[in-house]
Write a structure and sequence with these properties.
Elements: E1 2-8, H1 10-15, H2 25-34, E2 40-41, E3 46-47, E4 56-57, H3 61-71, E5 79-85
Antiparallel strand pairs: 1-5, 2-3, 3-4
Length: 86
Amino acid sequence: MRRVTVEVTAEDIAAGEHFACDRCPIAIAVKRCSGEPFASVTHYRIRLSPDGDSRVAKPPAAVGDFIWAFDQGHPVQPFSFEVELP
C-alpha cells in the first residue's frame, strides 16, 4: 500500500463527466496524482483495475459528498484528500 495525496483541481472539475465513475473529476485526479492508467471512483471504493476488484481502496467520506454534489449539478470546489492505494 502507498499513501497518495489526491488533489482535485478546477481543471479536473471542468473536464469531469457527471455520472461517469471513470471520467469524473476525482477519477481524473486519482489517475494524475497516482500515475495509474485507470481509476473508477464511487462513494464506496476507488478501483484501479478495469478487470475486477483486485486493486481497490476505500475513499474518505468527503469523496462521496463531492460525487453526490457534482452529479446533482451543485457547485463544487477543488479539494484534496489522502488515500492508501494498493
